[in-house]
Amino acid sequence: MQKVEDKPQIHDGLKGIYFANSDACFIDGEIGKLLYRGYNIHDLAEQATFEEIAYLLFYKHLPTPSELKAFDAELKASRTLPAPVIDVIRVVQKAHPMDVLRSGVSALAAFDPDTEIRFERGNPQPFLDATLRKGIRLTAQVPTIVAAHHRIRSGQQPVAPRNDLNHAANFLYMLFGKEPDPSEAQLINVDLVLHAEHGSNASSFAARVAASTLADLHCAIVAGIGTLKGPSHGGAAEAVMQMCLEIGDPERVPSYLEDRLNRGERVMGFGHRVYRAEDPRARHLRERSRELGIKKGQPHWFQMLQLIEKRMERYQSRGIFVNVDFYAGSIYYLLGIPEDLFVPMFAIGRTPGWALQALEHYQGGDLLRPLTWYTGPMDVPYVPLQQRG
Ligand code: COA
Questions:
Q1: Residues with Cβ within 8 Å of residue 335, at least 6 apart in sequence
Q2: Atom of ligand 1 nearest to the CA of 240
Q3: Which domains does the chain have, with CATH numbers?
């Protein structure tokens, strides 16, 4: 019971609060270290496929070749969307792609073969097994929703997935309708690996809150998608590219940043709730952004980003460093991915992370229900409507 005299410390933004154990992701924000299930992100980004990472996150170990083959077959078998879900996408096609993705995942719940399996306190295993199957299916279906929506809103037919292409290449194929250059598919693979999991970030926390009520996985992922949409979270890559387009020319970087910072505005792609050092994921996209800019005959975007990074060095003493989204936007842009698909790209990568966070919470996590300290008036007499005004 709240007593005015015992006002507790308010943990604004729940900063620094631990609320659960997790064996998925280790982050040391002071030195910029990130591990997925103990494996360093630097090794994973340079050597692993997204499929291996999804397996690692779901099954807690790296797959053997035969395990990966079976897992990959399961993903591929799940890529196609039920026809009514395509209809839903057509109906909401004018909405922002994140809203369409949210609606698409929500609609998928109605067609999921495990949708009727509910959590039973004395016998949770069938529900946990069903949740894992749903997580694998959603990992495969989310890219299809994003690509199908883009085709539909562009007046084209959705492109059916191709089972001879890996996750990243198939996404680009479904989006553009032609087989991608392998080096470009590999860029997307690295990007998806880097986005796959990140502890209790806002969207994963939202997914856990839904899971903590024992709502099913589709509900948890819908909560995650809705939360990812905000510019303080997934929207940063798009905002960075918008900033670069506004700047237009590397020569304008100093005056643009001066004006922006003088207005008290943030520079997108910098700062992170957890990292007080460089986000370890950023380095894997930095050099790739430079190389892609040269390859595409547009090196000025990288030059601009480098100048922004240089100018922001003075913020490092305050713990504000470049984050993963800073270079991601330039890569998507150079690959011809429309700006409003940048956040959905993040969602494609993060789907296994959301699913595993929900799965962890189903296995013994408590109902997430913190408190707000009431600061309004007390015991106000009710005045009937007719006597008001
Ligand atoms: N540019 C300029 N200043 C920044 C900044 C940025 N990108 N990020 C944080 N700051 C400043 C804030 O203005 C604040 O300054 P003040 O203490 O003088 O008011 C201080 O740093 C702390 O900011 P706060 O919002 O409390 O830090 P946080 O750790 O809670 O915020 C983010 C994390 C991500 C919300 C924040 O850094 C941000 O908005 N970054 C830009 C958006 C972005 O790139 N998001 C993607 C994250 S992966």
A1: 172, 184, 187, 188, 292
A2: 44
A3: 25-230+338-362 (1.10.580.10), 236-334 (1.10.230.10)
- Residue 233 is among the residues annotated as catalytic for this protein: yes
Tell me, what's the pLDDT at 1?
A: 63
The residue from 167, 195, 218, 272 that is catalytic is 272
300 is catalytic: no
The amino acid occupying position 49 is T
**Interior angle at CA 243, CA 248 and CA 312, nearest 5:** 105
- Residue 383 C-alpha to ligand 1 middle, in angstroms? 45
Q: What six digits make up the tokens of 213?
A: 């009520």
Residues making up the chain, counted from first to last: 389
- The pTM assigned to this predicted structure is 0.95
| Side chain identity at residue 2, one-letter code | Q
pLDDT for 389 equals 85
Distance CA(339)–CA(344), nearest Å, equals: 10
pLDDT digits (tens, 9 = 90+) for 130-150: 999 999 999 999 999 999 999
For ligand 1, the distance from its centroid to the CA atom of residue 59, given in whole angstroms, is: 35
**Candidates 28, 233, 300, 340; catalytic one:** 233
* Positions in the chain whose pLDDT score sits under 70: 1, 4-5
Q: What pLDDT does 179 receive?
A: 97
Task: Give the separation between CA 40 and CA 26, rounded to whole angstroms.
Answer: 9
Active site residue 325: yes
E strands within the chain?
Answer: 25-28, 33-36, 39-40
* Whole-number Å distance between alpha carbons of 223 and 201: 13
- Beta bridge partners of residue 331, listed in sequence order: none
Which run of H or of E encompasses 78?
none
The span from the CA of 278 to the CA of 115, in Å, is 41
pLDDT of residue 335: 98
Q: Which residues surround ligand 1 with Cβ inside 6 Å? A: 232, 236, 266-273, 318, 320, 323-325
